[in-house]
Design goal:
This protein is an alpha+beta fold. It has five domains: 30 residues; 37 residues, no CATH class; 103 residues, conserved putative lor/sdh protein from methanococcus maripaludis s2 fold, CATH 2.40.420.20; 87 residues, Beta Barrel (Elongation Factor Tu (Ef-tu), domain 3), CATH 2.40.30.170; 112 residues, Beta Barrel (OB fold (Dihydrolipoamide Acetyltransferase, E2P)), CATH 2.40.50. The protein is 20% helix and 30% strand. The strands form eight sheets. A six-stranded antiparallel beta barrel has the order 10-19-22-21-20-23. A four-stranded antiparallel sheet has the order 7-27-26-25, with helices on one face. Strands 9-24-29-28 form a four-stranded antiparallel sheet, with no helix packed on it. Strand 25 and strand 26 form a beta hairpin. Helix 2 packs parallel to helix 7 and helix 4 runs antiparallel to helix 5. The longest helix is centred in the first third of the chain and has 34 residues. It starts with 30 loop residues before the first helix and ends in a 14-residue tail after the last helix.
Length: 508
Amino acid sequence: MSESESPRSESPEAEMPHPEPPEVEPPPRGVRGMALVRWALIVLTALAAGFSWWSFARADDHSAHAARYFCPMHPEVTSAVPGECPICQMTLEPIPKDRLLAASASATPAAPPPSAGGATVYFCPMHPEVTSPTPARCPKCKMKLEPRAAGHDDAQSTDAGAPIVGSSPPGTADVELALDRVQAIGVRTEVAQEAPTSAGLRLAANVEAPESGVAEVHVRAPGFVEHIAVRETGVRVRRGQNLLSVYSPEIYQAQSELLAIKDWPALGEGKSSGDRAKKKLELLGMSKRSVDQLVAKGEPMRTVGVGSPIAGYVSKKNVVLGSYVTPETTLYEIVDLEKVYVIANVFQRDLASVKLGGEGAFSAPGLEKPVVAKVDLVYPKVDADARTTRVRFSVKNPDLTLRPGQFGWVEIAGSARTVVAVPRDALIDTGLERYVFVETGPGKFSPRRVEVGSELGSDRIELRAGVHPGERVVSGATFLIDSESRLKASLRGSGAPRSDDHSNHPKP
């Protein structure tokens, strides 16, 4: 096809003119500003959502590590999850809400009390002797020191430094228990009642032989035992009674000398040789009667008798027939029981009731009636283990009513009076403090110092101060109440548990 024919072959639409595009109207004013505001709101919303999530995650992490469980035996061991105590392997128990509130309240430092004319000092509730001029912790128990005014006499001590009767002992707190828990642990209470008493003493005692009534039998020259008259212990002997006969070569020779020189003339001293020989035999143990018999008979005696130095009972016998004895040998021991001693043990608190010359009644199993005894010696020594002092009573014993080793009791009467009596189980004695728990309301118990008097029988004691008649004291489950009181005081004094301390958390 030629170039002249090409335009004819084109489409008719190609020859038509194209319409012009319509004009675009500009956007209204402020659209761009509103778009920026919208994006700014979206960004702020995202930031707020992120901050909220971060705060929630942090609070959840803090609550996850907060102490919710503790060990009843070791309150300082806390954990955020259930487990066991790493010290005693006990199961951790939930911390009660009241203790959590008390711990959180104690964690907030309180302003020190106004000093009454002196600077503020800090002391340990468990160890009041530990003080500091600045806030610190006790070097013994690691408790926070509590503030008080210098020179202020608190409830723990008097002006003389002695505890005040009726105040709460250090390291204890009031206890409040629900009725079901009181019944579960078996708490029993009893009313402090006035009871008449004579304030007498009942002392354990035993009978001992008098030290001044013991005698030993010896020979004064060595020899051989050829005859025994008293062959067993427990036999009563008279003074001078023959106990045994001894052949002594030395005594036999002295007898021969006496018979040989008895008629010799006296020397310059005015004494004959026979008198000197007689004196020698007496020094060797022969009696004057035996020497006179020797002179009258005119020939030496083969054996010489040994007599008892006192009247009494043979308590020991250390000789048999044929024994070779010397002056160092104890042949017999004789005990005079015409008078015996009753030795009683008196506690320090009762020692003031025992006076020299005072009387007591000794009773023992098998005695028909008590025997009157009189105090004749209070030993000047206290037994370091039993904390008792020995008191000696002298008793006449002509018919052998009392025997050494006999055990019994000595009762010392006292003046009649009325005292406040409580069960013995109500008293808690730590060695440093004596106190009871007084019921101040239903399920409420308060520790209170008391002054203890004498014992009233086997199950009751006298309280001289600290408890009034009619008040109820805990007489059963006292140890459990005391443990709860000390645990509560420990939690209050040690502050709130630290949530950032994970050293006590049980290991998974």
